[in-house]
Design goal:
Elements (H helix, E strand, L loop, with lengths): L1 H6 L15 H12 L9 H4 L17 H6 L7 H4 L1 H24 L1 H25 L2 H21 L2 H7 L4 H30 L7 H22 L31 H4 L3 H22 L1 H9 L15 H36 L1 H25 L2 H30 L4 H8 L1 H23 L9 H19 L12 H10 L21 H30 L4
Helix pairs in contact: 2-10, 2-11, 2-22, 6-8, 6-18, 6-19, 7-8, 7-11, 9-10, 10-11, 10-15, 10-17, 10-22, 13-17, 13-19, 13-20, 14-15, 15-16, 15-17, 15-22, 16-17, 16-20, 17-18
């Protein structure tokens, strides 16, 4: 019970001398760990030959699906392993929708600890599944339980950061959410090194890698969760004055909408569609980035004018290495876009920022087939980098957009409900891109042109997104909580007024005491050094693209 008391929200209210810049590193510590979900494909090939070691032991054609789920005599095909990726994002969206309201009342520290238990516990269950060769344990462990951990870890800092940084909502959420995009940059190379370390002539080293990463991630995630603090109710940064409502942006409210009403408003569903359309287009491209570049440019990537199907095995290996650099470059823009676009939205406004995403996205998607046909590699790559930066930017900007529209009191829960759009997009985008490609190839279209129709369809998504964003208007007055309703919600959320706490004088904008400054430097280094390592590895990969 003492542990539960320590995790209680009221125990996380910041005391004098606390520096708000400690909260972003705490959020990054969790997001960089759960962001490994994007890099799980690094395990597919080793797991597909977990029994055969050097080559997969193929299951008999007569073996049914359920027999393959429980078999210990043949290897899993990559198509079965790939279901874990789908489960990640389905359960991420589902868990945030179901437990978002609980998180607002329980606080970020408790949610962060539960996230660590689910994500790291899921890896442990997956390790047992690999050891026993039971794929259902991987689906249950990392896919379902880990997916729930992803959801709770993803939204745990959102409401807290927005309350700590009312003057820079976009920048604050961008700092944290960029970690989710950067997790694979650190985790994928680490997983490769660990699998090579643990591999033996009779073992591919995956289950040991899962256990090692679970231990490392647990330390970082618990450290991040315990680092969370919430500001007292009514707190504001030193020297900052909230805008007067009648003179402020009409799209930014100073009032609050309850979750029970927010999700029933047209604004919620318009923003749901905005996120879904932006993510569907971006995630479909990210999932096919490597084969897309190889099939469109083929031999031109290594200086010869040869179609993809006419390349030798050795040449295909060469261009695959170059395509890996392209994928790494997209990762950098995915991460950078989360911080840069979200920060820009503080100055441009959220609605204008999404207008830029959809107008620029439409132009770029529509131009890509022509750029590919012209053989302009630099412009082709640039177009994709900008698109992916806006994909990441959409994730980081949407929490601030929600806070502007619905207030900050329940923004974490509202954001959690909205993330069902991500779950939908995680299925819609890749399925659309993959099936259109297969249809084109099946009807004799050259592989270099198999993505053209897809690009035009995604350009159409941008038009729909533009229209949805255009229709967003301020929330109707009737939907806001009354003073009595707000007071009741604050009581349930265990919020305490500034005057009731020793929170008066909390360091907000300055560097604070030497001790507080030292904590910020240490916390920033703890997450910054691994992130810089990931950046460096990715840049080295990306350089191959332009050699």
């Amino acid at each position: 019970m003492a542990i539960l008391d320590y995790l209680a929200k009221e125990r996380t209210i910041a005391k004098p001398g606390f520096n708000r810049w400690l909260v972003p590193p705490a959020a990054l510590a969790i997001h960089l760990c759960i962001g490994m979900a994007y890099g799980f494909s690094v395990f597919w090939l080793p797991l597909s030959k977990a029994i055969g070691i050097t080559a997969p032991v193929v299951c008999p054609e007569s073996m049914g699906f359920f027999d393959k789920v429980f078999t210990t005599t043949c290897d899993w095909p990559i198509s079965m392993l790939g279901w874990m990726f789908t489960l990640f994002f389905v359960f991420l969206g589902s868990s945030t929708a179901i437990w978002g309201s609980w998180l607002e009342h329980a606080g970020p520290r408790k949610a962060g600890v539960v996230s660590a238990l689910c994500w790291c516990g899921g890896l442990v269950i997956s390790a047992i599944g690999v050891y026993l060769h039971q794929i259902w344990m991987l689906w249950l462990g990392s896919g379902v339980i880990g997916g729930i951990g992803l959801g709770l870890g993803y939204i745990s800092p959102v409401s807290t950061l927005i309350k700590w940084f009312p003057d820079r909502r976009g920048m604050a959420t961008g700092m944290a959410i960029m970690g989710f995009g950067g997790g694979a940059m650190i985790g994928a190379p680490l997983a490769n090194k660990l699998m090579n370390f643990y591999a033996t002539p009779t073992n591919v080293g995956v289950w040991q890698t899962f256990l090692t990463m679970a231990a490392i991630y647990f330390v970082f995630m618990i450290g991040g969760a315990l680092g969370y603090r919430v500001p007292p109710s009514g707190w504001k940064p030193e020297g900052w004055t909230p805008p007067v409502e009648k003179n402020s942006n009409a799209m930014i409210t100073t009032k609050h909408v309850h979750l029970s009403k927010a999700w029933k408003t047209p604004q919620f569903w318009l923003l749901w569609a905005v996120l879904c359309l932006n993510v569907s287009a971006g995630i479909g491209i990210i999932g096919m980035a490597s084969p897309l570049l190889q099939e469109v440019f083929a031999g031109k990537l290594i200086g010869i004018n040869v179609a993809f199907n006419d390349l030798t095995a050795a040449q295909k290996t060469q261009i695959a290495a170059i395509a890996a650099g392209f994928t790494g470059l997209l990762s950098l823009f995915n991460i950078g876009g989360r911080f840069v676009w979200a920060s820009l939205s503080d100055h441009l406004g959220r609605k204008k920022t999404f207008f830029i995403f959809f107008v620029l996205g439409f132009i770029l998607y529509a131009l890509i087939p022509s750029l590919g046909k012209a053989g302009s590699l630099a412009l082709f790559v640039t177009a994709f980098c900008i698109i992916v930066s806006m994909y990441g930017g959409g994730f980081a900007t949407i929490p601030a957009y929600l806070a502007d529209m619905f207030g900050t009191q329940m923004v974490g829960a509202i954001h959690g409900r909205l993330l069902t759009a991500w779950s939908t997009a995680g299925v819609l985008g890749p399925v659309l891109v993959n099936y259109i490609r297969e249809y084109q190839l099946g009807h004799g279209v050259a592989s270099s042109q198999a993505y053209n129709v897809t690009m035009y369809v995604l350009a159409g998504f941008m038009v729909l997104g533009f229209l949805c964003n255009l229709l967003v208007r301020p929330v109707a007055e009737k939907n806001f909580m009354t003073d009595e309703e707000l007071a009741k919600e604050k009581l349930l959320a265990k919020d305490r007024a500034l005057s009731e706490e020793t929170g008066k004088g909390v360091v907000a904008t300055g560097i604070g005491t030497a001790r507080a400054q030292g904590k910020v430097i240490f916390a920033s280094a703890a997450v910054g050094i691994p992130l810089l390592y990931g950046f460096w590895n990715t840049i080295l990969q990306a350089i191959k693209l332009f050699r």
